[in-house]
Amino acid sequence: MAYAIEFSEDAEQHLRELSPRDRATVLEAIEVQLEHEPGVATRHRKLLRENPLAAWELRMRDYRIF
């Protein structure tokens, strides 16, 4: 089952600030890593301690996606 991925306005603004190459890399990572089984920890996905920012972290190169 594929999950729908929605971006907040803040996230969309952050994506617009990236270079086109970096934006494509980040969006591809989000699609590949989060479209199926987003709640499963992997090498690139990590469950974070409880905090107000996010429950999960996705690591892609120099980027951390929350």
Concise overview:
The protein is an alpha+beta fold and 66 residues long. The chain contains 2 helices and 3 strands, in the order H-H-E-E-E.
State the main characteristics.
three-stranded antiparallel beta sheet; single chain; 66 residues; 36% helix; alpha+beta
Describe the structure in your own words:
The structure is a single chain. Strand 1 and strand 2 (56-60) form a beta hairpin. The chain has helices at 9-17, 20-34; strands at 45-47, 56-60, 63-65. The protein has 66 residues and is of the alpha+beta class. Strands 1-2-3 form a 3-stranded antiparallel beta sheet, covered by helices on one side. It has 2 helices and 3 strands.
Distance between the termini: 22 Å
Strand line-up in the sheet with most strands: 1-2-3
Beta-strand content estimate: 15-25%
Characterize the main sheet.
3 strands, antiparallel
The chain-level mean pLDDT equals 88
**What overall form do the CA principal axes indicate?**
globular
Query: What Rg is obtained from the alpha carbons, in whole angstroms?
Result: 12 Å
Count every beta strand, where a strand is a DSSP E run of 2 or more residues: 3
What share of the residues lie within helices?
A: 25-40%
Q: Sketch the topology as an H/E string, one letter per element.
A: HHEEE
Instruction: Return the structural class.
Output: alpha+beta
Quickly count the helices. Answer: 2
The low-pLDDT segments are: none
Sequence-ordered SSE layout with sheet pairings:
Elements: H1 9-17, H2 20-34, E1 45-47, E2 56-60, E3 63-65
Antiparallel strand pairs: 1-2, 2-3
